[in-house]
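Box 3.1 A note on notation
Throughout this textbook, protein chains are presented in two layers. The first layer is the amino acid sequence; the second is a token string describing backbone geometry. Keep the layers aligned when reading.
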Amino acid sequence: MKLGVVGLPNVGKSTLFNAITQAGAQAANYPFCTIEPNVGVVAVPDHRLDVLAEMYHPEKYTPATVEFVDIAGLVRGASRGEGLGNKFLSHIREVDAIVHVVRCFEDDNVVHVDGSIDPIRDMETINLELIFADLETVEKRIDHNRKLQKTGDKKIIAEGALLERIKAHLESGKPVRNMEASEAEAETVQQLFLLTTKPVIYVANISEDDIGNSGNPHVTSLYRQAAEEHAEAITVCARLEEEVAELSPDEKKAFLEEMGIEEAGLDKLIKACYRLLGLISFLTAGPKEVRAWTIRKGDRAPQAAGKIHSDFEKGFIRAEIVPYDTLAELGSMQACKEKGLVRSEGKEYVMQDGDVTLFRFNV
């Protein structure tokens, strides 16, 4: 999973990136501090692996990972090449989802590129630049399609009608991800590689003074706008997260409890990304390795086996599965087997989040 962290200059984007990756990306009070994208690979927090590690004392402990890409701050006119626009847009094309950081804090010492704090305007600025870039792509495709329509090919004519619908949708100021489309049309849309088809999570970046304050009007307006777009939204204090990232796990836990924060920003962000992209994790456990594997919700057992090795999928026989909660409660796989709680599942089994799995295969 590759997530692009975007936002206007000086909204706390690189500060959040530093916090969640501890990669030390440069952060400063001027636009275009980030030019080439910084990349950080982050372990997905999963307490289930800790429990399994206590159970098996494995040689290796391997959590699932997420790749965060800190992309250069965008300004109005990026779709026409303003600022670092072209680089910004090309980097967005490479990610699975967009983490859009929006400034929801007042601070006279940190200059806002537009001179005032207005989350809706800021969200609109970036969204419109992505829409303008997509319009250019679609218009080129329409011109090409019109030339081909002379052949009378029904498939090409249908694609032309779809492209015109996409153009009208974009011209109304709406992202393509919110456009209604049949299954066949959705496949065609995917092949266009449009920026506004990518799912978005909005991150309301607040000040430390606003932690626990539900009355921040900027956050309220951001959540309202996100709901209208059918997008995810979370609230984070990037500055605090950056401080917390330097603490040990025990110190971090105590500090968050003292601040009245139930969950670290990284945990909230990754959970939101998993929901957004329809991802789940299954687990494998044994004395050699305890590991989490990321798959799409709805994947069947052979597809999950293929995540480990292509031979597992080709020669799939069955999956031996026990839900994590059952294994954690009984304390060992042997105890689960004695109670008949380890299931044998075939090729049609749809994997569930937290399935502790052993694949049987033959090649």
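The longest helix spans residues 119-148. The mean pLDDT is 86.
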